[in-house]
Amino acid sequence: MAINDTKVTTAAEQWARFAPIVTGDDYLDSLRNRDVVVYLFGEQIAEPVDHPIIRPSINALKMTYDLALDEPELATAWSALIDAPVNRFLHIVGSPDDLVMKNRMQRRLGQLTGTCFQRCAGLDTISVLHSITFDIDQKHGTKYHERYLAFMRHAQRNNVIIGAGMTDPKGDRSKRPSEQHDPDLFLHVTRRVPEGIYVRGAKAHMTGGLNSHWICVMPTMNMGQDDRDYAVVGMVPGDAPGLTYIYGRQSCDTRAMEAGDIDKGNARFGGQETLVVFDDVFIPNEHVFMDGEYEFAQDMVARFTSYHRASYVCKTGLGDVMVGAAAAIADYNGAAEASHIKDKLVEMTHLNETIYSSAIASSHEAKPLASGIYMNDSMLANVCKHNVTRFPYEISRLAQDLAGGLLVTLPSEADFNNDVAGPLLEKYFKGRGNIPVEHRRRMLRLIENMTLGRNAVGYLTESLHGAGSPQAQRIQILRAMDVEKKKGYAEDLAGIADELQ
Ligand SMILES: Cc1cc2nc3c(=O)[nH]c(=O)nc-3n(C[C@H](O)[C@H](O)[C@H](O)COP(=O)(O)OP(=O)(O)OC[C@H]3O[C@@H](n4cnc5c(N)ncnc54)[C@H](O)[C@@H]3O)c2cc1C
């Protein structure tokens, strides 16, 4: 691939194009008329904001702005950096309480949207950058922390969304970045000029990338000396020249193109993942926060996962919706009073609250780092995320149990609107008492949406792989579990003297 001579722009020029966002509608406006290259179903999309498949994902992010106005005590915080209140998704965590409040807000947004609202990875990125830039400066005498704070002042004043581009395509998993057959399988620096750097490669599965104002690129794994050019962290505007977004398909996504809103299951809200390709994208020095300090990549990933694995508490908000949906459909079916139904709702709640408790505990147990920021307890954050890789699947199984087979055999909205088929369906799909058939259909479609359809991405598979596949948590738990110390407790109580060992 030839090197693009994309125009060198300064950080000031990049920020000059932003206007402060206050309301959810301001946010929608901020995404309009951007010069972004987006492919979906083999076509370039002129205006993503108005596309029926994309719009629900934008609505979910919009909710993070709406909530800040509706429930400011939950979704805003005071920023010492600009001496003003800021959206909690841009707040630099100064205490364990900040992390607890963040978790509460995440659960609330899960309840309101029933999907991934796409802003947590960005928040966790700005948290980890605070301490990593500080630590690199301490060792190398660089100026990354100052640059980071300057970026954050702009970000907070303009109330922007930052997406996290950590996961590279990775090619052959057994090989390091510098060993891949194609050097672009991990994002890397291709050129350094006095004003900044150029990066090439791609970031995979990027949540809300297209809906973000900035994308932070950062390493996805530990790096060695030969991987120097891959050890790069920088902020790229979401509409930077050289970026191409290729939209990820979701199960049942074309239902968003159909008439009517019932078969969509959750017509208003959805998630979004894209492959984001960087074709020699320029990053001005002011927005470069790591360039070649490969020995910090491992710490950066470990700290990011400490924050981000606790952020999966958001799935408890979706779990609340699932418990509610399961209880409602049992009620509509006339089975709500059965003892096994109540017991299954108890089981779902128990699983959901177990996730919540590990996340909240991890935040309460947060400790300060050298830069002054607080970080979640890593063991408990990993336990939280590991629970999330399993419990939503069991919660979904129980919701499907209570829903009955109609969950997957219910005819289409078009058939319900048909003059002949419609009345037959109304007659034969009547449930309990005066509950309208439409209520039953809507609740079944919501459960379908979250366990088999578009939002199963956010509730199930993202729960499995997002922030690292299950094995990544087991490795962290293994590292931190200190079995030798625990053997000591047991041997002490068992009366096994040192001299016998
Ligand atoms: C819905 C969704 C949203 C996401 N959002 C974001 C985002 O916003 N930003 C972002 O940066 N990332 C995001 N991710 C990416 C996520 O972090 C990765 O999916 C995750 O780290 C796993 O990587 P992978 O998908 O490449 O799977 P793979 O690496 O291919 O893993 C597949 C399996 O192979 C195993 N495996 C992989 N490598 C090895 C090895 N070397 N040795 C032994 N076993 C191995 C894994 O344990 C796993 O079981 C998202 C993912 C999903 C599904």
Describe this structure in words.
This protein is of the alpha+beta class. It has two domains: 11-297, Butyryl-CoA Dehydrogenase, subunit A, domain 2 (Beta Barrel); 309-485, Butyryl-CoA Dehydrogenase, subunit A, domain 3 (Up-down Bundle), CATH 1.20.140. Helix content is 47%, strand content 14%. The chain has 19 helices and 14 strands. It has helices at residues 11-16, 24-31, 55-70, 72-75, 96-113, 120-140, 144-158, 297-311, 314-333, 339-364, 378-388, 391-403, 406-409, 413-416, 421-428, 437-451, 456-465, 470-480, 483-493, and strands at residues 37-40, 43-44, 76-79, 84-87, 162-165, 188-193, 196-207, 214-217, 232-237, 243-247, 273-284, 288-291, 367-368, 374-375. The strands form four sheets. A six-stranded mixed β-sheet has the order 2-1-10-11-7-6, with no helix packed on it. Strand 6 and strand 7 (196-207) form a beta hairpin. Helix 16 packs parallel to helix 17 (456-465). The radius of gyration is 24 Å and the shape is globular. The model has no long low-confidence stretch (mean pLDDT 97).
